[in-house]
Amino acid sequence: MQFDFNNMTVVITGGAQGLGYEVAKSFSLAGARLALIDVHREKLYRVTESLEGEVIPLVCDVTDYNAVHEAINKIENKTHTIHVLVNNAGIVSTENLINTSPEQWKRILEVNLSGAFYCLQATAKIMIHHKTKGKIINISSLAGRNGGLMVSPAYSASKAGLIGLTKAAARQLAPDHITVNAVAPGSLESEMLSSFGDDKVEALKKTIPLGRLGKFLDVKDIVLFLASPEAEFITGVCIDVNGGQYIAP
What we know:
With 249 residues, this protein is of the alpha/beta class. The chain has a single domain (9-241), classed as Rossmann fold, CATH 3.40.50. It has helices at residues 18-29, 41-50, 65-79, 102-129, 143-146, 153-173, 191-194, 198-205, 216-227; strands at residues 9-13, 33-38, 55-59, 84-87, 135-139, 179-185, 238-241. It has a 7-stranded parallel sheet, sandwiched between helices. It is globular and about 50 Å long. The two termini are 33 Å apart.
Protein backbone atom coordinates (compact mmCIF):
# COMPACT_ATOMS: atom_id res chain seq x y z
CA MET A 1 0.00 0.00 0.00
CA GLN A 2 1.26 3.45 -0.95
CA PHE A 3 0.85 6.20 1.64
CA ASP A 4 0.84 9.94 1.03
CA PHE A 5 1.52 12.26 3.97
CA ASN A 6 2.47 15.36 2.01
CA ASN A 7 1.73 18.61 3.87
CA MET A 8 1.15 16.68 7.08
CA THR A 9 3.06 17.06 10.35
CA VAL A 10 3.96 13.81 12.11
CA VAL A 11 5.37 13.81 15.63
CA ILE A 12 7.30 10.71 16.74
CA THR A 13 8.63 10.26 20.26
CA GLY A 14 11.68 8.07 20.69
CA GLY A 15 12.39 8.74 17.04
CA ALA A 16 16.18 8.61 17.18
CA GLN A 17 16.63 4.84 17.17
CA GLY A 18 15.02 1.44 16.77
CA LEU A 19 11.39 1.21 15.77
CA GLY A 20 10.89 4.97 16.11
CA TYR A 21 13.59 5.69 13.55
CA GLU A 22 12.24 3.10 11.11
CA VAL A 23 8.77 4.62 11.42
CA ALA A 24 10.26 8.08 10.89
CA LYS A 25 12.01 6.95 7.69
CA SER A 26 8.76 5.59 6.29
CA PHE A 27 6.81 8.75 7.05
CA SER A 28 9.63 10.81 5.55
CA LEU A 29 9.58 8.81 2.33
CA ALA A 30 5.80 9.30 2.21
CA GLY A 31 6.28 13.07 2.21
CA ALA A 32 5.55 13.95 5.84
CA ARG A 33 7.03 16.87 7.72
CA LEU A 34 8.61 15.25 10.79
CA ALA A 35 9.09 16.38 14.36
CA LEU A 36 11.24 13.94 16.32
CA ILE A 37 11.28 14.01 20.11
CA ASP A 38 14.05 12.13 21.88
CA VAL A 39 16.17 12.43 25.00
CA HIS A 40 19.37 11.34 23.21
CA ARG A 41 20.75 14.52 21.65
CA GLU A 42 23.59 13.09 19.54
CA LYS A 43 21.50 10.27 18.09
CA LEU A 44 18.64 12.66 17.42
CA TYR A 45 20.71 15.12 15.40
CA ARG A 46 22.47 12.32 13.57
CA VAL A 47 19.23 10.73 12.36
CA THR A 48 17.79 14.15 11.54
CA GLU A 49 20.55 14.62 8.98
CA SER A 50 19.88 11.19 7.47
CA LEU A 51 16.18 11.75 6.79
CA GLU A 52 14.65 13.32 3.71
CA GLY A 53 12.53 16.45 3.78
CA GLU A 54 11.84 18.75 6.70
CA VAL A 55 12.69 17.38 10.14
CA ILE A 56 12.34 19.26 13.42
CA PRO A 57 14.54 17.71 16.15
CA LEU A 58 13.50 18.35 19.74
CA VAL A 59 15.56 17.12 22.68
CA CYS A 60 13.01 16.38 25.39
CA ASP A 61 12.47 13.99 28.28
CA VAL A 62 8.87 12.82 27.94
CA THR A 63 8.59 12.43 31.72
CA ASP A 64 8.88 16.21 32.10
CA TYR A 65 5.33 17.52 31.76
CA ASN A 66 6.30 21.15 31.16
CA ALA A 67 9.06 20.25 28.70
CA VAL A 68 6.66 18.09 26.69
CA HIS A 69 4.07 20.85 26.41
CA GLU A 70 6.79 23.32 25.45
CA ALA A 71 8.10 20.97 22.73
CA ILE A 72 4.63 20.31 21.32
CA ASN A 73 3.87 24.04 21.30
CA LYS A 74 7.12 24.69 19.41
CA ILE A 75 5.98 22.24 16.77
CA GLU A 76 2.61 23.99 16.50
CA ASN A 77 4.32 27.37 16.09
CA LYS A 78 6.45 26.04 13.23
CA THR A 79 3.88 23.91 11.43
CA HIS A 80 0.50 25.41 12.47
CA THR A 81 -0.95 22.06 13.58
CA ILE A 82 -0.15 18.39 14.17
CA HIS A 83 -1.79 15.66 12.12
CA VAL A 84 -0.23 12.51 13.59
CA LEU A 85 1.37 11.57 16.90
CA VAL A 86 3.27 8.30 17.33
CA ASN A 87 3.90 7.65 21.02
CA ASN A 88 6.92 5.37 20.74
CA ALA A 89 9.31 6.47 23.50
CA GLY A 90 9.85 3.72 26.04
CA ILE A 91 12.30 1.79 28.17
CA VAL A 92 12.40 -1.87 29.13
CA SER A 93 13.57 -3.89 32.11
CA THR A 94 14.01 -7.62 32.66
CA GLU A 95 14.05 -7.41 36.46
CA ASN A 96 11.71 -9.91 38.08
CA LEU A 97 8.87 -9.01 40.41
CA ILE A 98 10.68 -9.72 43.67
CA ASN A 99 13.77 -7.70 42.73
CA THR A 100 12.04 -4.69 41.17
CA SER A 101 12.81 -1.61 43.26
CA PRO A 102 10.36 1.26 43.78
CA GLU A 103 12.69 3.46 41.72
CA GLN A 104 12.67 1.00 38.80
CA TRP A 105 8.89 0.69 38.97
CA LYS A 106 8.35 4.45 38.98
CA ARG A 107 10.85 5.14 36.21
CA ILE A 108 9.34 2.64 33.77
CA LEU A 109 5.78 3.82 34.45
CA GLU A 110 6.88 7.45 34.09
CA VAL A 111 8.51 6.95 30.68
CA ASN A 112 6.19 4.38 29.13
CA LEU A 113 2.82 5.55 30.44
CA SER A 114 3.00 9.04 31.95
CA GLY A 115 5.21 10.25 29.09
CA ALA A 116 2.74 8.93 26.53
CA PHE A 117 -0.12 10.64 28.36
CA TYR A 118 1.70 13.98 28.47
CA CYS A 119 2.41 13.86 24.72
CA LEU A 120 -1.11 12.70 23.88
CA GLN A 121 -2.71 15.41 26.01
CA ALA A 122 -0.57 18.23 24.62
CA THR A 123 -1.08 17.08 21.03
CA ALA A 124 -4.82 16.53 21.38
CA LYS A 125 -5.26 20.10 22.63
CA ILE A 126 -3.63 21.40 19.46
CA MET A 127 -5.63 19.09 17.19
CA ILE A 128 -8.86 20.21 18.83
CA HIS A 129 -7.92 23.90 18.66
CA HIS A 130 -7.21 23.69 14.93
CA LYS A 131 -10.09 21.28 14.24
CA THR A 132 -7.59 18.79 12.84
CA LYS A 133 -8.88 15.26 12.26
CA GLY A 134 -5.79 13.83 13.89
CA LYS A 135 -4.43 10.34 14.36
CA ILE A 136 -2.71 9.17 17.54
CA ILE A 137 -0.90 5.83 17.62
CA ASN A 138 0.49 4.41 20.85
CA ILE A 139 3.18 1.73 20.70
CA SER A 140 2.25 -0.83 23.33
CA SER A 141 3.57 -4.39 23.52
CA LEU A 142 2.57 -8.03 23.67
CA ALA A 143 3.70 -7.78 27.29
CA GLY A 144 0.75 -5.49 27.91
CA ARG A 145 -1.54 -8.25 26.65
CA ASN A 146 -0.13 -11.37 28.30
CA GLY A 147 2.14 -10.14 31.09
CA GLY A 148 5.35 -10.64 29.13
CA LEU A 149 7.83 -13.48 28.90
CA MET A 150 11.24 -12.04 29.75
CA VAL A 151 10.39 -8.52 30.86
CA SER A 152 9.65 -6.95 34.22
CA PRO A 153 6.16 -6.59 35.70
CA ALA A 154 6.69 -2.83 35.57
CA TYR A 155 7.14 -2.95 31.80
CA SER A 156 4.09 -5.18 31.35
CA ALA A 157 1.99 -2.93 33.58
CA SER A 158 3.07 0.19 31.72
CA LYS A 159 2.17 -1.28 28.34
CA ALA A 160 -1.17 -2.61 29.61
CA GLY A 161 -1.88 0.86 30.95
CA LEU A 162 -1.10 2.30 27.54
CA ILE A 163 -3.79 0.10 26.00
CA GLY A 164 -6.25 1.37 28.60
CA LEU A 165 -5.22 4.95 27.89
CA THR A 166 -5.76 4.31 24.19
CA LYS A 167 -9.34 3.17 24.73
CA ALA A 168 -10.21 6.00 27.12
CA ALA A 169 -8.68 8.66 24.88
CA ALA A 170 -10.38 7.22 21.79
CA ARG A 171 -13.76 7.51 23.47
CA GLN A 172 -13.20 11.07 24.68
CA LEU A 173 -11.61 12.41 21.49
CA ALA A 174 -14.02 10.79 19.02
CA PRO A 175 -16.40 13.80 19.03
CA ASP A 176 -13.46 15.87 17.76
CA HIS A 177 -12.80 13.36 14.95
CA ILE A 178 -9.46 12.32 16.45
CA THR A 179 -8.71 8.60 16.37
CA VAL A 180 -6.54 6.88 18.96
CA ASN A 181 -5.21 3.37 18.43
CA ALA A 182 -2.41 1.16 19.69
CA VAL A 183 -0.03 -1.35 18.15
CA ALA A 184 1.29 -4.22 20.26
CA PRO A 185 4.44 -5.76 18.77
CA GLY A 186 5.71 -9.10 19.97
CA SER A 187 9.38 -10.09 20.06
CA LEU A 188 11.25 -7.98 17.49
CA GLU A 189 14.76 -8.28 16.11
CA SER A 190 16.60 -5.49 17.91
CA GLU A 191 19.72 -4.59 19.84
CA MET A 192 17.74 -4.89 23.06
CA LEU A 193 16.61 -8.42 22.25
CA SER A 194 20.11 -9.46 21.19
CA SER A 195 21.36 -8.42 24.62
CA PHE A 196 19.29 -11.24 26.13
CA GLY A 197 21.73 -13.80 24.70
CA ASP A 198 21.36 -16.46 22.01
CA ASP A 199 19.68 -19.05 24.24
CA LYS A 200 16.89 -16.70 25.32
CA VAL A 201 16.38 -15.43 21.79
CA GLU A 202 15.99 -18.99 20.51
CA ALA A 203 13.56 -19.73 23.32
CA LEU A 204 11.49 -16.71 22.31
CA LYS A 205 11.43 -17.83 18.68
CA LYS A 206 9.87 -21.12 19.77
CA THR A 207 6.91 -19.22 21.25
CA ILE A 208 6.04 -17.70 17.86
CA PRO A 209 3.78 -19.89 15.67
CA LEU A 210 5.02 -18.24 12.46
CA GLY A 211 8.53 -19.33 13.40
CA ARG A 212 10.52 -16.10 13.33
CA LEU A 213 11.11 -12.91 15.25
CA GLY A 214 9.25 -9.83 14.15
CA LYS A 215 10.92 -7.08 12.16
CA PHE A 216 10.49 -3.33 12.37
CA LEU A 217 9.04 -3.57 8.86
CA ASP A 218 6.16 -5.67 10.20
CA VAL A 219 5.19 -2.94 12.64
CA LYS A 220 5.86 0.30 10.79
CA ASP A 221 3.42 -0.43 7.98
CA ILE A 222 0.63 -0.93 10.53
CA VAL A 223 1.53 2.43 12.10
CA LEU A 224 1.38 4.19 8.73
CA PHE A 225 -1.94 2.53 7.95
CA LEU A 226 -3.47 3.72 11.23
CA ALA A 227 -2.23 7.24 10.44
CA SER A 228 -3.74 7.20 6.95
CA PRO A 229 -7.21 8.21 5.70
CA GLU A 230 -7.92 4.52 5.06
CA ALA A 231 -8.14 4.03 8.84
CA GLU A 232 -10.40 6.99 9.60
CA PHE A 233 -13.18 4.71 10.94
CA ILE A 234 -10.87 2.75 13.24
CA THR A 235 -10.43 3.95 16.81
CA GLY A 236 -9.91 2.48 20.27
CA VAL A 237 -8.30 -0.73 19.05
CA CYS A 238 -4.98 -2.42 19.71
CA ILE A 239 -3.54 -4.30 16.75
CA ASP A 240 -1.35 -7.28 17.64
CA VAL A 241 1.74 -7.77 15.47
CA ASN A 242 3.44 -10.84 16.88
CA GLY A 243 3.33 -13.77 14.48
CA GLY A 244 0.71 -15.51 16.62
CA GLN A 245 2.75 -15.24 19.81
CA TYR A 246 -0.29 -13.92 21.68
CA ILE A 247 -2.36 -17.05 20.98
CA ALA A 248 0.45 -19.55 21.47
CA PRO A 249 0.16 -21.90 24.48
